[in-house]
Amino acid sequence: MRRKLLMGNWKMHKTVAEARAFAEALGRMSGRLPADVDLVLCPPYTALHPLRVILPAAVRLGAQNAHEAPHGAFTGEVSVPMLQELGVQYILAGHSERRQMFGDTDERVREKVRAIAEAELIPVLCVGENLEERRSGRTYEVVRRQVDIGLSALGPDAVKTAVVAYEPVWAIGTGQAATAADAQDVIGRIRMWIRDSHGAEAADGVRILYGGSVKPDNIAQFTAQPDIDGALVGGASLDPESFVAMAQAVAQGGA
Fold first, then answer.
1. Region 101-110: what's the mean pLDDT?
2. φ, ψ dihedrals at 88, nearest 5°
3. CB 3.0 to 4.6 Å from 237: which of 101, 155, 181, 233, for a disulfide?
4. What's the predicted TM-score (pTM) here?
């Protein structure tokens, strides 16, 4: 039985002081956090250490990106070992903003996934089609390519413990979410493609999330679907009350 997972991606939001205030507020609400849902926050790098100290024990740390090399002359980059030292357990790879704005190719995303898994951390492979690709009927083609290449460096055991996040680019930050049926269709196919490439055990074990304009009032529609194991949430994770409400809705949706 796959445990539900709620991840908050803060992107480039919150100073250290603001992150501390969030964590302190969340601590006061910790009794309302469900025990049967894994909870992860991905703050900016600058807030990782403070949050490690003051987040409630039930909430784990994630990072929004990592360089694929362990060290080197890569100005402005942060490596997997550096993040591991800070207590990070999950790392995003291939978020659409990284792909679109910073040139992360499918092949580079694969190397990031490899580096994260080799450090025995959990890679979160982000995949999804843009609006033009969706309108031209290429959703399956694009998403399958991203999944196949992104996971191609991992064996079945590593895939089983990894996470895939399906985030249609046209739904991220737009207020326009996919329907639960649409999300289930694509995510069900992702699980099928992983079964084809890595076997049934990997496909049955890997957790697949939906992301894209997810909020407290719609998250349960997605996580109630048979192949959707949780959500990767952006703006709605910036408020502690909203984060708790989504965690509760995920727990109820998985009941």
1. 97
2. -70, 135
3. 233
4. 0.96
